[in-house]
Amino acid sequence: MNSKQFLTAMYLRLSRDDSDVGDVTDREGNLKSESNSIGNQRELIRAFIHEQQDMELYDIYVDDGFSGSNFDRPEFKRMISDIEAGKVNCVIVKDLSRFGRDYIESGRYIQKIFPALSVRFIALTDHYDSFQADTSESGIVLPVKNFINDSYCRDISTKVKSQFEVKRKNGECIAPFALYGYRKDENNKSHLVPDEYAADIVRKVFAWKIEGMAVSAIAEKLNGLGILSPKEYKKSTGNYKGGFSGAAKSQWSSSTVKRILTNETYLGHMVQGKREKINYKLKKSVDKPQEEWIKVENTHEPIISVDQFQIVQNLLKTDGRVSVATEESSLFTGILFCGDCGEQMIRRINRYKDTCRIYYICSTKNRGDGCTRHSIEEEQLKGMVAELIRHYANCFLEEKQMFEKALEMETNFESIVRYDTEIARLKEEQDKYYSLCSGLYEDLRQGVITKEEFERLHGDFKRKASEFEEAQKKQEGMIKELFKNGVISAARLKAMQESSELKEIDRHTLCSMVKSITVFENKRLEVEFYYMNQYRIMQEVNKKVKEQKTEYNRNKERSA
After folding, report:
1. What angle do CA 206, 208, 210 make, to 5 degrees?
2. CA-based radius of gyration for the chain
3. In terms of Cα–Cα distance, which of 532, 551, 540, 535 is closest to 416?
4. How far out from the chain centre does Cα 90 lie?
């Protein structure tokens, strides 16, 4: 048995927050970051133990880089295990803040758990020793000091959170690691620049999705090619450490691929603040609604074009499946639907002797769940869709040319808005619901409806009116975009021009032009093209300008 009465644990802690407050001084005028360093804590406590006749150092427990706002620290847990095993009966810290900054949990350990385990607790610079403390120190002074430490931690957390918020709004990257496809700029760690190897993989992922591959098929292809997953790639470049060294290598998964395909950061926009901590005492984070994310546009070089991103978002709504027979996606994967049940049409190959007939049928009918076949042969479908694309592209380019001439005459944005019948319709619907809201007051006064019915209907009508008001704003925003930046991008204009002379349809042209194709009985098709809203606006503006020009010429002839 050891002759020493107290087997002592030296507990040392330093958090990142503590090391970031170098402009704050303690009572002796020393910088806190310096006085709180692990080395200084160790020497101070070691000197104290050396002077005590009844103490022997059992072990040193160091949590370097861990916050004092909670007790989820590896070395602290090891120390408690040794205390419970009877190996330690005295704990010494430099001060109460090194032990912890959560005043409730700190008080629970110091005033309940340690006394129950017959453990002596000493905080040197706070001059607290549980074996010598009187009632006032344990009952009043100690809780107050712990409360001050907790308040300090909360204050630091608030300041750090505010600084991060400012950086996010400035479009600065505050993440410790760059998103896959990018790396931190060597001259500015808050700025992203493309990592050409990973960026090329991102481009391939988007290209494969546009070709019609499912996200699961893309993940399988990446794994088959031996391409490192984002996590493993970070490890290989020395930018990531974590987990167990013996753990199996992480693979590409559907969720990983989908995160890449839906991330607007690849458009050159910084999108941050998707998650937040519940509070400063807990590590747990929760997802924030998308409208609360902080998005700053054009902060870095894009990897993916807006057109590619838009096409992929549309295709993700109906994720395609690779043909088992050919291991290739069909031309119409993800964009061909039944006109009655709305389900995707599926490709079927009928081989008979030396002939091969390829056609599409309703997937609901194919499963035997009802509906009808809506059968249409692939070659016939290709021809019909190619003709519709050519027609739409030619009409669009013609309307665009007329619209640009109209803009030269009508330079006032408000005059263009007045031409838009969709805005007029939305405004009419909004007024209707506001009128219904007003009528409810009279119905309530006359006893036609109860108060509960009034509150329910008033809420419904007001919500509907707000939805139409929001739709108006979106429509006006689209017109402003037409007015300010032109109808379509240079890349999409080139695709339109190529489509106007289309001879044979291909997957890239199809996905660049068409959102969806709906097949009805008797092989009737309805095609939803990209930029149909812009096309309608151009038509209306061109029509109004033409009417005004005709009326002007008539008046001129009459006056003559």
Report:
1. 70
2. 35
3. 540
4. 48
Q: How far apart are CA 67 and CA 282, in angstroms?
A: 10
Neighbours of 267 (CB within 10 A): 18
pLDDT confidence tier of residue 326, bands split at 50, 70 and 90: very low
Calpha distance 306→115 (Å, rounded): 65
* Residue written as token pair 């309703």: 362
- Residue range 102-146, pLDDT digits in tens: 777 888 898 889 999 999 999 998 888 888 876 445 444 556 565
Residues 6+ apart with CB under 8 A from 389: 499, 502, 505, 509, 510, 513, 514, 527, 529
The tokens for 201 are 């993989």
- The identity of residue 170, as a single letter, is N
CA separation for the pair 207, 222 (Å, rounded): 13
Instruction: Tell me which residue of 344, 347, 381 sits closest to 364, measured CA to CA.
Output: 344
Dig out the tokens for 265 from the structure: 């950061």
Tokens read off for 328 = 């290739």
The length of the chain, given as a count of residues: 560
Residue pair 454/505 in contact by the 8 Å Cβ criterion? no
Nearest 5°: CA angle at 432, between 431 and 437? Answer: 95
What is the Cα–Cα distance from 4 to 310, expressed in whole angstroms?
Answer: 74
pLDDT of residue 156: 59
Task: Provide the residue type at 341 as one letter.
Answer: C
Q: Which position has the higher pLDDT, 89 or 23? A: 89
Q: Are 13 and 98 in contact (CB under 8 A)?
A: yes
What pLDDT does residue 23 have? 38
- 500-518 per-position pLDDT tens digit: 888 888 888 898 899 999 9
Amino acid (1-letter code) at residue 483 = F
Tell me which residue has tokens 């930029």: 531
Q: Is 362 in contact with 544 (CB distance < 8 Å)?
A: no
Q: Is 69 helix (H, G, I), strand (E, B) or coil?
A: coil
- Interval 395-427: pLDDT, tens: 999 998 888 887 776 555 566 666 677 788 888
pLDDT at 243 over 50: no
Confidence (pLDDT) at 113: 92
pLDDT tens-digit readout, 148-206? 555 556 555 566 666 777 788 888 898 888 999 999 999 998 899 999 999 999 999 99
Cβ distance 274 to 254 under 8 Å? no
CA atoms of 495 and 489, how far apart (whole Å): 10
Q: Residues 395-432, buried b or exposed e (16+ Cβ, 10 A)?
A: ebbebbebbeebbeebeeeeebbebbebbeebeebbee
Contact between residue 9 and residue 82 where contact means Cβ atoms under 8 Å apart: yes
